[in-house]
């Protein structure tokens, strides 16, 4: 159990009640854990305490707008549980899996999940590992936050996703540039719909920026690969 001192974490803003509903108290407990054990274990920088709600927890929870209640979602490189744990609190009917390769972080995530009473699975490993994919099975969406460039994320994450599923990559100001830069790579990996979406527009300034890459069905990928390229015409 985490030892949490009262007063060391910022108070929840009014928007948090609308975002987390009945799980608001758990979201507040999570913020206190981040402000305590999260900093002590080097998962959150000490300068981030005052920005835990807006920049980290609410920002992460906003991605839940792109998830349906009955979907299975994997958060790769979960670290301190961002965005996976806020998503699980905001969308409790979804099945959330946290994938983290580092032992100390995976142990932290397991403790947090137990402390908050979340029905969330923690898997230690990397998204590209076959054993991890076998353990998780077919999924509807995969999320990430500050993990890698868009092309690397696509190579790691898209093979995990079912036909028609999505990669939801949280990005910053360069999201549009990354989409332009890596569009060809993503298309070659079977992406049929690539766009930048703003989440949490009603309560975040700036909103969360998410690159949504939808994987095509087998038939659409076969159709695309069968088209002659310009050099063959």
UniProtKB/TrEMBL annotation:
InterPro entries per record: rRNA_ssu_MeTfrase_G, SAM-dependent_MTases_sf
Chain segments carrying region Disordered: 214-233
EC number, as in UniProt: 2.1.1.-
Biased amino acid composition, Low complexity: 214-226
A Pfam family recorded for this sequence: GidB
Gene Ontology CC terms: cytosol
Compartments (UniProt record): Cytoplasm
MF-aspect GO terms: rRNA (guanine-N7-)-methyltransferase activity
Family: Belongs to the methyltransferase superfamily. RNA methyltransferase RsmG family.
PANTHER family noted in UniProt: S-ADENOSYL-L-METHIONINE-DEPENDENT METHYLTRANSFERASES SUPERFAMILY PROTEIN
The name this protein goes by in its record: Ribosomal RNA small subunit methyltransferase G
Naturally occurring in which organism (per UniProt): Mycolicibacterium sediminis
